[in-house]
Amino acid sequence: MTLDKIEKRIETLLASDKRWPILVDFPNKSDMKSFLHHFNVGKNEILSAGEFCGKDGTMKFEEMSNRIENNEGNLFLVNLSAYLKLYGENVLKNTLKAIVSKTIKGHAVIVTYQCREYMKYSDSRFLERGQICIVDSEFDESSSICMISPALAEAFYGAYIGFEKVGEAFDTSKENTIYIATDVNKQIFKMSLIHISQLSNGYDVLCLQDSRLKNAPESIGNDNQWNELLKIMGSSDFSFVVESQFGSIGGLVECIKNYPNYSDTKKWLYYIALTVLGSKNNSYLTYAITGITSYKEIPQALFRALITIDRKNVNFPKMYEERKEILRFYTQYLNEAVDFCKVISSKQEEAIYYLTDLTQPEKEKVIDWLDVYGKKYSTNELVNILNVVFPNLAAYLSHYRFNKDLLNTYFESYKYQKVINRILPSFEVIVEEQALNLDFVSVLKPRTQIFDKIDLAGTHAYFFDALGVEYLGFIQTKCNEYGLSVNITCGRCELPSLTCYNKEFLQVCNDMGCPVTSIKELDEIKHHGEDSFDYEKVKTPIYLIRELEIIDELLRKIRVSIINNKYEKAVIVSDHGASRLAVLHETENIWQMETSGVHSGRCCPKNEINTKPDFAIEESGYWILANYDRFRGGRKANVEVHGGATLEEVAVPIIEITRKIEGIEAFILEEYRIVSLAAMEIPVLKIYVGIISSNIGVMVNDKYYDAVSTEDKYIYKIELPGCTKKGVYSVEIVNGSDVLSRDNLFEVKKKGFTEVSLFD
């Protein structure tokens, strides 16, 4: 039956005295809308079945039935179809049959949508009376219903709020999926004729909008978090969220730097982004978050994930460096660092390869490791390991070339023993020998002779209390790193090695108008330390970490000052060194002096009652110990000691620092490129170097030879006792650790018999 005919039939019914309900079913919403518009006039009442629907999903069928039965006017009941279909076929059929079977006071038209196949009743009276009217027209595509949590309503534009809106939505919405915000569970409607889905939280919705989000388990967020993400994403995909919050998908690894400063919400979003998309430029970051269940676990995971990778794995070096680059921005996470250091102990000797120098706990763990395992490795082996793990400590241990073999061997061994926290018996023998021989007198010039010759014009001087020559490798390395040229000369202090006897250079600076800044921190640590630096409380040399920091801070300051032209040159000069090994020795000598020892027993005022002890030097009214003993009566040392006459106490550096000059010319003089040797002769080279420096030397076959200046400015002479064999040699010309030129060749030839003068 056409819509026009049905409208005329209804008009006829409404004008009649017939009192029975009529069912009018529509195949599409357009015709139904037109029909209702036609009759929405005058006293005709349009009543929605939603009026009889509870918020809990129950339908008050009896109340609705009574309302139809007692109606005295013209009633049009709409929006009933969805409720009936939700309850299943039997409820739908029986409810409609019950309605059309009623005798009513007025007129009632029950409008249904796509229910015709359920209106086939055996009672012929319904058809005879014209109580069932079917509109013949095109069918709409059936809609489905999705019940969403009320908390998600904002995320679904156009969603219907409340279950009572189901009927209205089903009859009027043009959407294929109709969203109803309700707490009603779809399980109530197990017999439903309408396809029902349910999204209880934002996670379900998000996965529908972007399937990639299924890679993030629902458990890693709560309902509020997923709902918040849904609001942010709106109708877009997850890529939109990442780009709006973090810039780009490809830049997620860079955002890890800012993670500590994010809000909790943004931290969680970042965690989701990494879980779903991974990190394209940092495999360690992706690896670290695998297996964690909360964004709060990210810092700990970044610290600890490396532990699960065998250090011999081919990917370990790459993972290590990627982790270290990330953790540069996580130094405030000390609890995580401490936790990592505890767990890494399980690696035992392998633990060193997992540590970094980024946090104080890790640095101290390196020192602890050296105390236990360091003696198993040579200095070079430790330097190779520490170049990766703790570069500053590697620089401290690095070889500094003194111009005397005694100093080279002595201080390389001294530094090694300091970091492994023990005295080697062989070294103690050397110390005892030096205490008797006192070679430092001939090997080292007095500091005064050296400092008096320094040009202090345009110079700022730094009096660095207790800076011994053990730090020169570190200083030279850092100056190279900072683009500074360094010229180092070593001398000896006055005895006893106390500050009060070693400040003559201050007067020189004052006379020359050279400003002086005093640096006391190093000496304060050695004398007093802190709670964690006290030898009686902590036996390992963790204080060395802070010592290197203090020196580095000064070098950085000097660099800035030179770059900013505050001065042309900085000169660092020290009053004395100090000894760690004398503290480790823990030995008082047998001498009970009339006067108590001072400076932790390293020296004692001379008196007429006692005899000068063994291994002691008499100077300036003191007896000064040159070995690792201590006079009785002096207080125990906290960290390190000075006042004695060991090499580490008496050897002091004078360091001149200037802006590095690039492209310094250096070469072998032409007449020295071929050297003819007679028997028992050694080669002598002369080289040109375009700077004045006391650190000029050459490397030949991996062996270093010191150069000495000549009467001719910029000309240096080198003796090469290791190059007596016939052949061509390649030479590197160096200034300290700076290579000035490479592949300089000279040839050694042997003089023939006739070439040798009998009178030479």
TrEMBL record:
Provide the species name: Roseburia inulinivorans
Domain DUF7862, first and last residues per copy: 674-751
- Can you give the residue ranges of the DUF7863 domain? 206-373
In this chain the DUF7864 domain maps to 8-182
Q: Which InterPro entries match?
A: DUF7862, DUF7863, DUF7864
Report the domain of life of the source organism.
Bacteria
Q: What is this protein called?
A: BREX-4 system phosphatase PglZ
